[in-house]
Every structure is written in C-alpha cells, then in structure tokens.
Amino acid sequence: MAEKMIEVKNVSMKFRMSDEPINSLKEVFTTAVSGKLKFNEFLALDNISFDLEKGKTLGLIGRNGAGKSTTLKLISGILKPTSGQIITRGNIVPMLELGAGFDLELTGRENIYLNGAILGYSKEYLESKYQEIVDFAEISDFIDMPIRNYSSGMMARLAFSIASVVQPEILIVDEILSVGDAYFKEKSYKRMQELMSGGATVLFVSHDLDKIAEMCDEVVWLERGKVVKIGPAKELCEEYSKKQLESKQ
Amino acid sequence: MNKEKIRKIYLIFMALYVLLAASFYFLLGDQLKYKDSINNIVMVEADAVTDEIVKGVEVKQFFRPSIDRIQSMAIVFTKFYREGSGTVYIDLLDGNSILYSKSFNVKDIPEQHRVFINFEKPLEVKDRLLTLKIRSDCNPNEGVAVMMRKNVDDSILVINSRGMKGTLCFSVSGVDEIYAAQYYWYFALGVGLLFALYLYRSYRNYCHNKHDYLVRALLAIDKYKFLISQLVTRDFKSKYKRSVFGLLWSFLNPLLTMIVQFLVFSTFFKADTQNYPVYLLSGVICFNFFKETTDMCLTSISGNSNLINKVYIPRYIFPLSRTISSSVNLAISLVPLLLITLIMGLKLHASTLLILYFLLCLIAFSLGAGMLLATLMVFFRDTQFLWGVMVQIWQYATPIFYPAEIIPDKYKFVVRFNPLYHFIGNLRKCLIDGVSPEPISYIYCLIFALAMLFIGTYVFKKHQDKFTLYL
Are residues B260 and B403 in the same domain? Predict the structure, then answer.
C-alpha cells in the first residue's frame, strides 16, 4: 500500500463570529456591560475525513462557502482545527496566494530572496534556482529595479516563477494559477501541469470541473462543511455538474 | 542538523558558560566581594558651627562605624568667608593609636563644601569607638570652624575638653563584604554542573528522537535563520531605501535627540550630574530602543495579516525579526555613544564590557513586551493608541534626562519597580563610573528580563492559533 501523505481525521472547524467584529476595548466593555456579547458559531467544516496517497492528485469541489479553502488552509497549517487531527508527511508548498510578502520598495532580485524565504526555500536552493526564476519570468532587464515600478503583469510573472520553482512533496493549489498575457498564461499552465505530474502529491481546488476531471485521480465533494462523496474524479464531476444543473432549474 | 552538529553546539555552549563565568568574576572584580555599606554615616544638616579652631583648640568627635571597610570621609568647614591661613590637622584615632592623619592648608579649604579624605588603604575597624580629632596652628581670626548640629542624641562631641551632645557635619562611607560572594566559584560550578547535566540529557533524548525544548529551538533557528535574516534585511532596506543619508540615520537619530535634549535640559541638571552628555545619550539610546521595538512588534502581527493568512510561517518570527532589526540599530547607535564617551574624556574600563549584559536584558525585556503587545493588538486595535500614551508616561517616569536623585523619597518606588531604570542605571554605572554595579543588580535585571519574556511568550503562544480568525 502506498504511503499516505495527508491524513485528515474527523476534522471540524468552528468559527466564532460575533455579529460585528469586536476590535476595540471600548466595544468589549460596552457589549459586556450591556450583556450583548454573543457569538454566532459557524461550522465551516463538520467532521470531515479523507486521505491522500503519495503521488496522487486530489481535487476538492463544491459551491462557494462549502469549506474548500478552509480545508486547504488547515492542511497548510495556517489554521488549526477546532477538533480532529491532520497529519502531513513531507514538505508542503501552499500556492494559495502569489507574491505574498512582496515589498514594493525592494528590487526584483531582493524580492526573489525575500519571497523565497517566506515560502520556506533555503538560501542554497534559491541561489541555485535564481537564474531559472528570472529567465522564466522574463524580467531579467528589470531585475535590479524596485518592483513598485513593475507592471502588474510583471509582478504576477515574477511571483509565479518564484512559487513554481519548487519540487514539493505536497503541493496545495487554490485555482489553477495562470497569470499574465495569453502567452504567459499558457506557459504557466504548462508549468503547473509539469509540477503536478512530476511525482508530487497534489491537493487542488478549482471551479473548473473540466480541469479537475482531467487532472485529478480522486475528488472530494464538499457541501456546507460536510463531505457528500469521495470517489473517482470523472464520475463524481459528472454527478456534481448534473446536480448543479438540477438545482438551477 | 545531525548528532554531530548538536554535540558540537552543546560543547560550544559549555565552553561559553565557562568563559562567561570566569570573565564575569574578573570583570566584576571588587564589586563582587563588596557592596556599598548600608551603615554609611550620612551627613547631617548644619544648624551651628563649632568654636573657631585656632592654635590650642581641639575638636573631637566620637563615633562607632558599623562599616566593614571604610573608604572615605568628608567634613564640612566654614572659614567665616575669610581667606584664612595656616594648617588644619585631622587625625583619626582608634583609642590612642593613630589610624590616619592628614593636614590641609586653610587656603585650600572651600567654604561650606565637603572636604574629602580618601583612604588609600581601606580601614577595617568595624564597631570600634573611633575619635575624629581636628586641630590647627592658625592664629585667631584666620582659622576655620566645623559645621555642626546641636542636640543630637547618641553622639558626643568634645570641643576643647568641653563635652556636649551634638555632631559635626561629617560623613563616613565604605563597603560591606558580601558574604555570599566567597562562594562564587562553588555557585558557578554548581550551575555549570546542572547545565552540563541538562545538555547531556537533552543530547541523549535527541539520539532517541525525543526533542526537548532546546533542541526544538535549535532546529527552528536552523530552519528559519534564512527567513529571519531576509526579514531583517527587508526592514533595513525599506526603512532607508529612499532617504539620502540612509544607514547614517541610525547614527544621527540618537545623536540629534540627545543634542536637542541636551540644549533644553543641560542648564537644569548639568550641575547635579557628572558627564551629562553621556548620561543623556545612554538613556536616550536605551529608551528609544525599547520604544522602537515595542512599536514595531505591536503591529508585527496585525500589519502582516496578508502574509499570515496566506502562508504558514511560525507567528513568533514576526516580532522576533522586528526585535532583531531594532537590536542591529541599537548596536549601530552604540558607536556614537562610545564616541561621545571618549570625547568627554572618560576612559574605557574592563567594566565597559559589562554594558552588554544589561543591553541583552533590555533586548529580552523588549521582546517580551513586544510579543505581549502584538497579541493584544490582534484582539483590541485600541492597544496601539493606549500604548502610545503609556510609552510617554513611562518615558517621563524613567530618569533619562534628569538624575534619579531628584525624585522625592515617597515616589522612589516609581523607579524602584521600573525595569528600564534598572537596565539604564546599571549601564550608566558601568560606562560613566567605570565600575560594575553590585552583584544583586545583575540578578534583578535578569529577573525583570526573563519575567517579561516569559509572560510575553506565554500569552503569545496561548493565543497564536486564534490570530488568523481575528485578522
């Protein structure tokens, strides 16, 4: 049996939400005194379990607010579950947001190292991959310029190049990250496919059912924080899209 | 990280401990063995003068000092605002044997100011009845008199064989032995053994794949050192990126603040304080560090919300990296401090090295406070504004531009429980007086620093999982 890279066991995630966020001392006092300090509990994930074997690609499908992004955040360690357990083996690269931690005042070169460090790359690794990043982003002429002078497309290309230079054991992707103009979109899509088929274990969220069906081995179908079904990608995607159509009519 | 590396690091730790324990002993020198006596005889306020001391007149003061080693005395004379001439002889007697004699030319004696007598070799006459005898060879109307206070119980004064209740205006100061200090080496050895034992156990555990706190800390440092160094460089680069002087501001900032405060306050406090510029600058640098660190840590979590919500990085990295950037800044601003110290004609002593100890305490304290504030800030955005006011109050409650002595006794508790005052005060003692503070001060500072660090990390750790929900 293949090694399990991700195990999600009976995980629940509860958010405590007050009607208005209480952010200041004054509000705490006034609400506490008037006895209005109530929290609405919102169950984002309700006792979900699944696991993922090495080298497999798993897709998460479901409507907005079904708990897909929360699941990704839990697995990448950004959130801690209210109850239940999550076990991961190997280094995780979460590609949830590109260019997190870019500093506009710094040059492209400096941002490559900063952003790389934030994503958890080592110094040696970044140094060895530096040229590859610059070449892929095609910004070698502007690399020593502060990125506040970059166009949004250049910044997105740089961010994608940094994020996708890794060889992760577990790759977590929220929507297929293809950025820039049509030419670069294709280039980055190819790169994503390379990454996903390159032996990495992939967990992947998209609203594009065709892509999910094409790339995933298995699919977890979430609805309102609960697992509806787990099964082979193609069958489940079909069933899911049928259901969507029905509910529309 | 492997076994070899951990072992090497632990051996370095042990060597460092031995080095520190030994250098501490030598840097402290006499300060380790003696502390200022609590039984110093304090000068009384004068309400009278003795008879004029001329040829044949003799003033004797009896006293019984409970000081282990007497280092100096001071007496206040008056010359009735005349120039005077002749010689004054001062003898200190233990029974009939003379302990010390010194003579002064009347012309050199200042009007109603302290005349100091420093004993080259400290006197060890604890609890003996001593006689202070003052005579002179002056002609009438050219001599001096000693300021005194009448009707003081338990003090006998003899003026020309006429006994009376009263005391001269004189002070005696010295040091008491610290009895615990003779056990320093045993103590150092004991702590060293415990430390070695702990390291050994930690190493054994590591070999069996059980990671204790220290190992986890080392692994985290190894894993995140690149990220931390990147964040620190980022702080510096973006801080000075578009300024002309750039890094030079780290020198200029404390220096300019010092000059402004110097111009404003020097007329008030200069007379009371020796080396006022050094006094001022050391205070300004330390407090600015504290202010900068806490301000930066305060927003380190809430200001990085986009990062914290998107990528997993241990949360403590943010306040920690901010504290490290401020510490680098602090290190840079030590350069102008040392320059001013040298310009003011102060010499660098071995004890100057000891300021590093107090700076480390200050850094740990600020980090602890910063983590506490960062946590509070996530839940209550008001913290930022409250802290702005608090810092200002704290600044005035700390003797930075004024001498600590001007605080009335009933408000002394304000500085006594002010950790920053302890750090700054001891640092100044090392730098300006060139001697180490009493050993107990080191322990106080350490307790203050570690307590704050513990509170800060505890609160931070307890709430860090909830940060994302509130950002």
Answer: yes
Q: In which element (H, E) is residue B216 found?
A: helix B213-240
> Could you give the number of structural domains in chain B?
2
B226 shares a domain with B173: no
- The candidate with the shortest Cα–Cα distance to A120, out of A96, A100, A91, A147, is A91
If DSSP codes are grouped into helix, strand and coil, which group holds residue B13? helix
| Contact at CB, A105 and B242, closer than 8 angstroms | yes
Identity at A82, one-letter amino acid code? T
Say whether both B233 and B163 belong to one domain.
Answer: no
- B20 lies in a domain? no
Distances in Å between the Cα of A171 and the Cα atoms of A227, B300, B305 are 21, 28, 23
Torsional sign, CA B219, B325, B353, B431: negative
Return the SS3 of A237: helix
| H-state helical runs in B344-418 | 355-379, 383-397, 412-416
pLDDT along chain B (471 residues), means of 10: 86 94 85 83 87 87 89 89 88 88 88 87 88 89 88 81 85 86 88 94 88 87 90 85 80 84 78 79 92 94 84 89 93 89 85 91 96 93 92 92 85 89 93 85 94 96 86 75
Domains of chain A: 4-91+205-248 (3.40.50.300), 100-165 (no CATH)
Q: Residue B218 domain-assigned? A: yes
> Who among A24, A119, A122 is closest to B380 (CB)?
A24
Which residues, listed in sequence order, are joined to residue B93 by a DSSP beta bridge?
B98, B131
Task: State the Cα–Cα distance between residues B425 and B431, nearest whole angstrom.
Answer: 10
Assessment of whether the complete model's pTM goes beyond 0.80: yes
Long-range contacts for B235-244 (Cβ within 8 Å, ≥24 apart)?
B235/B296, B235/B321, B235/B322, B235/B325, B236/B325, B236/B328, B237/A103, B237/A105, B237/A106, B237/A110, B238/A103, B238/A105, B238/A106, B241/A105, B241/A106, B241/A146, B242/A105
Residue B13 lies in a domain: no
State which residue of chain B sits closest to A77, comparing Cα positions.
Answer: B312
Residue range(s) defining the domain that contains residue B283? 211-470
Residues in chain A within 8 Å Cβ distance of B314: none
We report the CATH number of the domain holding residue B148 as 2.60.120
Tell me the shortest Cα–Cα distance from B8 to chain A, in angstroms: 22
Report the SS3 class of residue A48.
Answer: strand
Look at residue B327 and tell me if it is in a domain.
yes
CB contact under 8 A, B311 and A103: no
B276 and B137 housed in the same domain: no
